[in-house]
Input
Amino acid sequence: MQILIHPADEVPIYRQIMRQITHGIAAGHLKPGDRLPSHRELSEQLVIAPLTVKKAYDELELAGFLESQRGRGTFVSVRPPQADPTEQCDQLRESARRFLADAYLAGFDYEDVLQILQEASRSLAAPAEKETI
Amino acid sequence: MTPVLEFRDIVRSFKRGVPVLDGVSFAVQPGEVVGLLGRNGSGKTTLIRIAMGMLHPYGGSASVFGASPTENPVEVKRRIGYVAEDQVLPPGSSIAELIALHRYLFPQWDGDLEGTLLGRFALDPAARIKHLSKGQARQAALLCAVCHRPELLILDEPAGGLDPAARREFLETSIQLLNREGTAILFSSHHMNDVERLGGRVVLLSDGRVRLDEDLDVLREGICVALVPKASASDPAQLERVPGCLRVRPVHDQWHAVYRGQPAATQASLVSTLGANGIRCENVPLEELFIELVGGERGGVS
Output
């Protein structure tokens, strides 16, 4: 899985990393037990401070998404947590509103939108290729 | 833990009665990264020169590793690496001669690091300083600043005048040093993206004082900007009275107000205080925050 960061985004860099890792876990690009790059590797790869990487990993560990093993590195948890359903639902509603607004602005109707969703769902269900960070 | 660098109530002026620094205090701890921000003329370089022992403060004191940089210049400079935007390197010497001089001055010189950096920067040791590009000269200066493995690296607008690729390479090297040595870094920069990448703490100078001294992430998430139509608040004092207000400035037909707090909570307290709608509160990137905090008033010609 590749991580990309944008310094000028409204979201601080450590949150961008957190979000991409949790999305990676949700989408199956990162599997339980997968090893993440070390603080140092990711810091040099993204050209950001090592403490920023540490902060992202620490928060994800606290939330149960990652586990660090002394001397071995940081890994995706065997059982990553289920997200808070209400918060999750709110976020999804917000994404749905944005998605529909984009679709209607581009001239698609509800039927087209449903078809796009079905296609997307099928491509997610297809076995994800194993990617490395 | 003794700070690697400490400013205590520094006062300095160049014209009588016009202080550039008017009581500046903060400290840098071992291994800490601190970005020094402020507009042109806000005193960043003056402060850095005081830390380097190149200027005396008129009031207050600076200490580096617990010692005075003007009284113990040799001991202090051994443990500091320094790169400035306008750094003058001897134009007639070659890079090899420049490195030989530094190796002679610093007994703890790291020849392996020198070799690594010469290779990475693709610098030709035989090249004369005067024939180097701006980016190459800055790289040579960085090499000389870090190969004695300083405990504190002071970078005064190190990326000034460099193209984006050269700036990124400079940043990459700084971050690798941070990883390898845990060097404390004090850097001044006008490139907010670079400040976000280096992370750590931000000290903002304005009107001769420390306007803000805050962890970068706290700054990004704990401070928001409110846009309020002037129709909703005739007097900026109404906005200043709302708790957490750091600054209000007019921008065309709106007030831009900076508050400590979360956007949603700030918006709610503004709406209830002013009894008005049409207020928008958001977290903003560092560049926008910088402009909101120290930028001038903006408006059309009336």
Remarks:
- The mean pLDDT of chain B is 91.
- The interface with chain A takes residues 33, 168, 171-172, 175-176, 178-179, 192-194, 196-200, 216-217, 220-221, 282-285, 287 of chain B (CB under 8 Å).
- DSSP finds eleven helices and 13 strands in chain B.
- Residues 164-181 of chain B form the longest helix (18 residues).
